[in-house]
Design goal:
single chain, mainly alpha, 79% helix
């Protein structure tokens, strides 16, 4: 039973189920956000890209605010509030007919996005011991990608019905956020808040190893997540001529890869250098960008190249996420963990915002330039990841091997 649980607590597994349901709805709308606003509501491609960018742009502004909230009120309460904001925002997008309405709804959802990522990461870290945090990250990634993959496939089928299908997907996504909030409230118990450390974010920004990791993460997320989430679907539809079900299957291929590869890669990483895992992820993203460029050259091989790129990105994601959040949790003092996670969450949203904000503008001018530029960014991230090791404490340079212990849930700091 211990081996089946991977040394993780019952509480954590129940939260993982909630994550799966949440991402089921998110995956259904994710590849169609720009398409829905552009084709369904008649917004220009630039306006649609800016609305989607609002989901990330507002998150960039609210993520730093989430850190003190997590450290003061707890990860559970902050994550629950974020889920309610996301549900309201996506419901607003479902009924938005004018750009102003869409921007307002996206701003609310973006505020929820900014708080959900760091609060959920803090929650997972608090529910696990340091030697199995990479496994907790792995199972949460499997759950989220299984949800995204199944949701993407179902979303592609529903989106084929046009505007009514898109609207239904956005309503369903809003509902799954509410379900996730209910799971958090029902399952997680609060504990005693740790003794605070003075300095707040000043302490965070003086941590040179952490700040190096933050800036490297911006580049990796911009390519591995942003480009392949928001640039590839409209490129595949408008330039290559793929149907929405086929675009949904690209997301399924990516998510299925993560579901299959995440746990083996997490175990493979045990005892190995963390920076090498990150650099390998970034280098895989370089190759994936080149495959997307190749898809535009040969129409006969276009879909095969895009499927291969989606699979490659999934493998790269596994290497990067196995290392990232466990390393952040190890670098952070317990009483500032919310701020550390919020800072890393900010780097995620900055990276994600770059793709729809700048990437769609370049995409509308030259798809080749957009994806070659993304490859260059990923190559720079590879070099930066390797340079990080000299700044890491020696005892944090390797992913730890798990100790044998019973799978009991630690108390979650408030």
């Amino acid at each position: 039973m211990h081996r089946l649980s991977l040394g993780l607590s019952r509480e954590l597994w129940l939260v993982v189920i909630g994550i799966f349901l949440n991402y089921l709805g998110y995956g259904a709308v994710l590849p169609f956000e720009v398409i829905y606003l552009h084709d369904g509501r008649g917004f220009s491609l630039s306006v649609a890209g800016l609305v989607v960018a609002m989901l990330s742009g507002v998150a960039v502004m609210t993520a730093p605010l989430a850190g003190p909230l997590i450290d003061r009120f707890g990860a559970r309460a902050t994550a629950a509030g974020a889920g309610v904001a996301l549900a309201t925002g996506y419901a607003g997008l479902a009924i938005a007919h004018m750009p102003a309405q869409a921007f307002a709804a996206a701003a609310l959802a973006g505020a929820g996005n900014g708080a959900l990522n760091p609060s959920q990461s803090t929650l997972l870290a608090a529910l696990t011991s340091p030697d199995v945090r990479h496994r907790a990250t792995a199972v949460s990634r499997v759950a989220s990608n299984a949800g995204i993959g199944i949701g993407g496939a179902l979303g592609g089928l529903v989106a084929a019905y046009g505007l009514d299908g898109y609207v239904l997907l956005f309503w369903a996504n809003a509902l799954t956020y509410i379900v996730y909030v209910c799971v958090l409230v029902a399952v997680i118990r609060d504990g005693t808040r740790p003794v605070p450390i003075t300095g707040g974010y000043r302490f965070v920004v003086r941590d040179r190893a952490f700040m190096h990791l933050v800036f490297t993460n911006v580049a990796i997320i911009a390519v591995g997540w942003g480009v392949f989430t928001w640039l590839v679907p409209p490129y595949a539809k408008d330039e290559i001529g793929l149907s929405t079900p086929l675009i949904g299957l690209l997301l399924l291929a990516n998510a299925a890869t993560v579901v299959v590869a995440q746990l083996p890669i997490a175990k493979f990483a045990e005892g190995r250098r963390r920076v090498v895992m990150m650099a390998l992820a970034a280098s895989i993203f370089v190759g994936a960008c080149l495959l997307v460029v190749a898809a535009g050259v040969s129409t006969d091989m276009a879909y095969a190249a895009l499927v291969a790129a989606a699979i490659a990105v999934g493998v790269g994601e596994c290497f990067h996420t196995t290392v990232l959040m466990p390393l952040v949790a190890d670098l952070a003092p317990t009483s500032l963990r919310g701020r550390y996670m919020a800072s890393m969450g900010l780097s995620w949203w900055v990276g994600l915002a770059l793709a729809p904000t700048l990437g769609t503008q370049v995409l509308s001018l030259s798809p080749t330039a957009a994806f070659l530029g993304a490859a260059a960014v990923a190559l720079a991230a590879t070099v930066s990841a390797l340079a990080l090791e000299q700044r890491l404490p020696e005892d944090l340079r390797l992913t730890p091997h798990p100790r044998r212990a019973t799978a009991t849930a630690p108390t979650v700091p408030r």
